[in-house]
Design a protein that fits this description.
globular; single chain; 0% strand; 15 helices; mainly alpha
Length: 341
């Protein structure tokens, strides 16, 4: 196969590698389930959230409503102290519940970050045929824990940058800064919207490469940011094309999951009705609960596979760009048209 043929199969090979990694190493589904909490399929969903224009507005509205609750006011502190004095057992229960919720939240964040690192690490080793250690959930947790803090830092940095970009393109903020609302405001807002939307998408993509540099190349945090940015800048069009492809895959996979759920729903509904008619209302609710559990498992399984697949695909693209490089499909099409002319 010539060089042009190799280039033509870039995305096909990457998706094929990612699917083989995901399907043949089903323990990655466990990690994919929790890595999905980080929103790994949301690169181009940034565009739709931005076009909806809700995130920036919702932030200001949430801040206003939170301030109106007076949770940190002197009266609230006084009421908490009074409750602790008059009914200490109730206050202790409330504190215990809050601590339990906080512990659960911290545990899920830890597991999500570790899961992301495990999929990046193991998929890279599988793709490069360098896997020389035991695999599974327990070894994976031990491996992912080593990269927890830098991967957590990169995720926080990327999400803060994206969130800040959404805030800066909020119509409310721009209107308050400019102080007027006319054609000039609309033009300036559109320009700012495009600029900060590009920034948000860029951060979402280059953070993926930075995480790969931390886990695969053992870079330190700052070094991974620099290397990840350089790799993205040098291959930004390929990265965007990959994001578009994976977004389409995500849509198709979500559609397949919905079809599977609807297919499973019909016999369960009929069975629940039949049991309710023949047996009792208790039997009807038993079948209904079983149906809900099965449908929930289907959704979780589909989401876990999709998350593991997408992280593996980005890891495969990272390995290709670092090793052999890649060329954009759009560039190839333009070059083909130019050469024919």
């Amino acid at each position: 196969m010539n060089a042009r043929g190799n280039i033509m199969t870039l995305y096909r090979n990457i998706l094929s590698q990612a699917w083989q990694v995901t399907w043949r190493n089903k323990y990655l589904w466990f990690f994919g389930l929790f890595a999905a909490l980080l929103g790994n399929s949301g690169d181009l969903q940034i565009v739709f959230r931005a076009l909806g224009g809700q995130q920036g507005s919702d932030f200001f509205e949430t801040c206003r409503q939170f301030a109106q609750t007076g949770i940190f006011s002197k009266q609230a502190i006084f009421n908490a102290g009074h409750l602790f004095t008059t009914n200490p057992s109730a206050m202790i229960v409330m504190l215990f519940v809050c601590l339990l919720c906080l512990t659960l939240f911290v545990f899920l964040v830890w597991l999500a970050i570790v899961s992301q690192a495990v999929i990046v690490n193991d998929s890279s080793e599988i793709i490069s045929a360098k896997k020389n250690k035991s695999t599974g959930i327990k070894p994976g947790l031990m491996t992912g824990t080593k990269y927890f803090w830098p991967v957590l830092g990169l995720n926080i940095f990327g999400r803060l940058a994206i969130f800040l970009a959404f805030i800066l393109i909020s119509q409310q903020l721009v209107a308050k800064i400019l102080g007027f609302n006319n054609t000039v405001f609309t033009l300036i807002y559109v320009i700012l919207f495009i600029i900060f939307l590009v920034i948000a998408i860029s951060f979402s993509l280059f953070i993926k490469y930075s995480i790969a540099y931390v886990v695969i190349k053992k870079n330190r945090l700052i070094e991974s940011l620099r290397n990840g940015w350089n790799l993205f800048i040098g291959n930004w069009l390929v990265s965007v094309e990959m994001a578009v492809i994976l977004f389409v895959v995500n849509l198709l996979a979500s559609l397949a999951i919905i079809i599977a759920i609807l297919t499973l729903t019909t016999p369960f509904i009929f069975l629940a009705w039949l049991v309710g008619q023949i047996a009792s209302l208790v039997g009807f609710w038993i079948v209904l609960v079983v149906a809900m559990i099965v449908l929930l498992l289907v959704m979780m399984l589909g989401g876990a596979m999709l998350s593991a697949f997408q992280i593996s695909a980005w890891t495969a693209l990272f390995a290709r760009l670092v090793g052999k490089g890649g060329e954009s499909k759009i560039v190839r099409v333009i070059e083909g048209i130019t050469n024919r002319e």
